[in-house]
L-histidinol-phosphate phosphatase (Bradyrhizobium cosmicum), 263 residues
Amino acid sequence: MDDIQDQISANELASFFHELADVAGRIARTHFRSSVDFERKQDLTPVTIADRAIEVELRRLIGARFPDHGILGEEMGSTPGDRYTWYLDPIDGTKSFISGMPLFGTLVALADERKGAVVAGMIDMPALSERWYGTSRGATFNGKPAKVSRTARLEDAQIYTSSPDFFTPQDWARYDILSKKAMFRRFGGDCYQYGLLASGHCDLVVETSLKSFDFMALVPVIEGAGGIIRDWDGQPLTPDSDGRVIAAANDSLLQQALAVLKQ
């Protein structure tokens, strides 16, 4: 099978990502701050009718455009493909969504499994009308170039994580020490915090318990904006990574943070 670049131009691929985001956003906004019901999955995380409706529609659009591609979604599992796989998180931050907080997003990534690389990724925040799109050529925020900050010292860094609830006691102890060495720490935001990092508004994001559909889209956005994203051992993220993720504005900041986490 030819490279995706031989099948579709960079502009066409970007346009398709934006089409997916537009469709997902319309569905999400229809249900946001409504009386939408939710239920708990086996892992006790909530899921709504909006999560499922978005994934159904994204799968339909991807299947029509790229019928030989695989799809891995949070709500409907895996559909195998020949070489390429789409990773879908229809609503990242479902707890925010069901509680009326606008810090939820849709994550979409396209990975070349043969090369072990993420071709493109998107963070879309439908309630905020904010969108990041990243490839190896760079990252954009609402169509304009996105660039990470120049913060190079841990003591000057702004550090984010979604919630202490996602950490084991041992991992929280490590994060607690790290975050207290930074200039200040903030909580909440799910995928939004990675967009903030890509646009230079924070400097470090450190999390655990993420699944591949949570982090695959983040890789080209962060790296396209000039940052770096790894696991807690400093290794590149893959679909088999253990869910402990650290994103930084630059390698110097990453190495300082990793040194603390490894203590």
Remarks:
- The first helix runs from residue 4 to 7.
- The longest strand covers residues 84-92.
- The chain has nine helices and 15 strands.
